[in-house]
Amino acid sequence: MMEKLLLPAKDRLLKSKSSRLDGEFRGKLIVLLCAAIMISATIAITIFLGTKGLQSFTKNGISFIEFLTSTKWNPTDKANPAYGVLPFIFGSFAVTFLSALIAAPLGIGGAIFMTEIAPSWGRKILQPVVELLVGIPSVVYGFIGLTVLVPFIREHAGGLGFSLLSGTIVLAIMILPTITTIATDAMSSLPNHLREGSYALGATRWQTIRKVLVPAALPSLLTAIILGMARAFGEALAVQMVIGNVRDMPSSILDASATLTTIITLNMGHTTYGSVENNTLWSMGLILLIMSFAFILLIRYLSSRRKLR
Amino acid sequence: MKSKTADRIATAVFVVIAIMITAILAGLFFYIFIKGFKYISFDFLTSPSSNVRAGGGIRDQLFNSFYVLFITMLITVPIGAGGGIYMAEYAKPGKVTDFIRTCIEVLSSLPSIVIGMFGLLVFVNTTGWGYTILGGALALTVFNLPTMVRTTEDALRAVPRDLKEASLALGVTHWHTIKTVMLPAAFPSILTGAILAAGRVFGEAAALLFTAGLSTPRLDYSNWNPFSEQSPLNIFRPAETLAVHIWSVNTQGLIPDVEAVSSGSAAVLVISILIFNLAARLLGSFIHKRVTATK
Question: What is the mean pLDDT of residues A130-135?
Answer without folding.
Answer: 89
